[in-house]
Automatic annotation (TrEMBL), chains A, B, C, D:
Identification of the protein by name: S-adenosyl-L-homocysteine hydrolase NAD binding domain-containing protein
InterPro entries named among the record's database cross-references: Adenosylhomocyst_ase-like_sf (IPR042172), Adenosylhomocysteinase-like (IPR000043), Ado_hCys_hydrolase_NAD-bd (IPR015878), NAD(P)-bd_dom_sf (IPR036291), S-Ado-L-homoCys_hydrolase_CS (IPR020082)
Requisite cofactors: NAD(+)
Pfam family for this entry, one: AdoHcyase_NAD
GO biological process: one-carbon metabolic process; S-adenosylmethionine cycle
Keywords from the named record: NAD, One-carbon metabolism
Family: Belongs to the adenosylhomocysteinase family.
SUPFAM superfamilies: Formate/glycerate dehydrogenase catalytic domain-like, NAD(P)-binding Rossmann-fold domains
GO cellular component term of the entry, any: cytosol
Occurrences of domain S-adenosyl-L-homocysteine hydrolase NAD binding (ranges): 31-192
SMART domains tied to this protein: AdoHcyase (SM00996), AdoHcyase_NAD (SM00997)
Amino acid sequence: MSELYQLSKAGKLCVPAMNVNDSVTKQKFDNLYCCRESILDGLKRTTDIMFGGKQVVVCGYGEVGKGCCTALKALGAIVCITEIDPICALQACMDGFRVVKLSEVIRQMDVVITCTGNKNVVTREQLDRMKNGCIVCNMGHSNTEIDVASLRSPELTWERVRSQVDHIIWPDGKRVVLLAEGRLLNLSCSTVPTFVLSITATTQALALIELFNAPEGRYKQDVYLLPKKMDEYVASLHLPNFDAHLTELSDEQAKYMGLNKNGPFKPNYYR
Amino acid sequence: MSELYQLSKAGKLCVPAMNVNDSVTKQKFDNLYCCRESILDGLKRTTDIMFGGKQVVVCGYGEVGKGCCTALKALGAIVCITEIDPICALQACMDGFRVVKLSEVIRQMDVVITCTGNKNVVTREQLDRMKNGCIVCNMGHSNTEIDVASLRSPELTWERVRSQVDHIIWPDGKRVVLLAEGRLLNLSCSTVPTFVLSITATTQALALIELFNAPEGRYKQDVYLLPKKMDEYVASLHLPNFDAHLTELSDEQAKYMGLNKNGPFKPNYYR
Amino acid sequence: MSELYQLSKAGKLCVPAMNVNDSVTKQKFDNLYCCRESILDGLKRTTDIMFGGKQVVVCGYGEVGKGCCTALKALGAIVCITEIDPICALQACMDGFRVVKLSEVIRQMDVVITCTGNKNVVTREQLDRMKNGCIVCNMGHSNTEIDVASLRSPELTWERVRSQVDHIIWPDGKRVVLLAEGRLLNLSCSTVPTFVLSITATTQALALIELFNAPEGRYKQDVYLLPKKMDEYVASLHLPNFDAHLTELSDEQAKYMGLNKNGPFKPNYYR
Amino acid sequence: MSELYQLSKAGKLCVPAMNVNDSVTKQKFDNLYCCRESILDGLKRTTDIMFGGKQVVVCGYGEVGKGCCTALKALGAIVCITEIDPICALQACMDGFRVVKLSEVIRQMDVVITCTGNKNVVTREQLDRMKNGCIVCNMGHSNTEIDVASLRSPELTWERVRSQVDHIIWPDGKRVVLLAEGRLLNLSCSTVPTFVLSITATTQALALIELFNAPEGRYKQDVYLLPKKMDEYVASLHLPNFDAHLTELSDEQAKYMGLNKNGPFKPNYYR
């Protein structure tokens, strides 16, 4: 996505573009809801972990981090987080997670999970300080979050114990369990439910239809968020799966709220 | 807030205005985090309720509704919600709440809570169908959500059982427990922690300072969201209360992310 | 209860006695379910606390401690526990609570809660090390858990800030917030729902009826647990409140399980 | 286990036996803690399920049922339960689960899970009424809980879609997804963490040592529960994995409580 915005900023975007990724529905499903389940699935399929009582640090408390933290906490893990953004950090506090620097806690952790979108979030120095058996994996969108390259050095031995699972062995015998060589755990070691794919595909299709049908001049050579109403439409198409019954505004209520009875129901920035 | 936008739309706003209400930090504290606690507090101070096993319907799954639902579910209540907005409804599904129409469930409910911002969400007809002992209260921002006026009719008897608590008695002896005469429960029957007030006051003060200090021309006669960086600043000022330790970006990381090391860290629409 | 057992041991019990306190239903309601709600209620009524992000230590992870921990964690507090019993300690681990010694964490805590049944669980030395504003209260069944007597000494100033709330002020100005002078918070600063009282009263009444009606020789001068079947009967009498529908065993199923269709359904030690 | 008790009742047990299965530590790990994780793992490995918003009925609210319900609810499923035992049913209510008869809800369910230990809990008639795509599986200890035999009839087509997963196809095209042919999901489609095995093996080993070392006459030809103190010892051996620090009773405290400083700390029936 950010590439599109950079092209636009540089004046090099030659067609209108829709940032479907940041539509509320798609983002919540791709990140929060999907990762809430796949972090558990990915860890279970690859390791012998029992979640109860495990000390876990999650790097990044965005939607992916929130999903991972919720699931792990619910299953009895003791979770702390790292953040650069004070708003997300404060949310983590209010949700019951200690906000720490990675170096402060790295020695005690049983599991280290990255979901920042950044690079070198877990450094070789930190890998050196992990305890024996520590599991390291990446749920973020780049595979540079863990400095895996630094582990490919002669003093360390790599042992592939099963598909997607490497033991990195230090000279003193300490083993760190690296999953999917630092690539995305949710894609490498779990599956994405078709329900999530349906949300994504529907969002993309509607965005294309909108761009195709839009009267000339509505969209310029820029990047747009999906119109709120279409985002709501994607959601409404998926509600019958849950036998969910929406309430309709009465005329009087719509007038009182200053809303159209068919939406959109919220301002654009509402998530 | 919406009054400001209406003035602006009508071209009648004669100074720049800051919509502090929709800053992320203030909104989450005023609505989500504060109500998560005050719904429990308000109900406990006024009634004999035990939350475990109670059937509760929450009307509206915005930030206030999300806070109420989280708290009540955590204490063992069985919660369902009503919504007009398909995006919020889908979120409710994913969070484990059935999405229903009020009329479908009203007969079984032990507690009915409104947090929609709308009017006549609970009608006289629905009040007539509630079961004996049903508790009705409002956590939303208007006191028209419950049609209390319709209860002031000769066939019904009002009995004040204690401060903020009325029993409305039907001719057949059925009693509905109305809290705070339909006014805001969190303000009437609970307290707002000073921590929440501090977030609000800090946000307002910073907004005023920004408007006062801004170079001419930065703000016109319009309504603005608080700049992300100031929202982040409000959050960062409150982190020491939790002994939270923020991580700082390295130069390399900031460059990789295309971010200033001091923020803002997220796009404006990020919540 | 333990007095009865001591009398019995000493051969001084002159009538049969029923230990109603340890019936499953009564115990879960008096301790787990009731305290899960009253810990929140008691703290909210007496202090300005916001639970989110608060560091809390709960001393004792029995039924009362489990209730307190569940509720506080659910509302975003960061909770750790102390225990003497390895089985309860292991349960705390699996439920996601760090098991610590009080002295290790006392400096960082925002709230200290005792529920051990023991004495001097919080000592003067630990009170001396608490941080400014730390809240101390007792949910256990004795009021000796906090060494309150040690606080009645000339160098400390007591300031009653409202009913049930004392600030104990150290010479350097540090204030510790003592609730209910160390007596039971749930009884002093919260209310017991009538539903809990109904469970207790029903259990006691049935125990008396059983003792009165029992054929001679069934009960000797000893202490007995309530017969499982009567414990189940107490529960079944309270199920209609929740519109709960029990399943009945078919003849074939009852035979397969070796159970009477009307219970008891579990061995005596089952909780 | 129940076989041992039947032998004992019939006077046919020719050696002392230890019921290790009902030791607190082993039972909680084998049933509550292990199943809390394996229900998720088993469903994820075999199906495309997304837990959020799914309607699930769990038959039986013993330790296994409690584990399944906790995990599924935490991940956003909407869970109801069936029970024959009013005490367990009341616990389910207080934990936020509706207690229903299977026939009342079977049509709406997305997932049906048995954990009763009983037979024919899910009958052919109920299988006939399930909706298309409903997932059926067994977490209990017998594989007669689902009447699988009734599905092996000419009008139904079985289609093996992958290992451990059969689609049973009704003449009208409806498919029910049967996992592991009704055998235990946790053993067939998940893994048991070595930590759980360690608890079990340690318990068994200690029981054998106790029986071997016991002075003549301590144990007769009967079935015994593991002495509380050994149960506590098993727990204490596993605490270092969690870096858990037990508190020790002072002499004064031990005397006050009437306890030995080294345990046992609780009466035998305490769970």
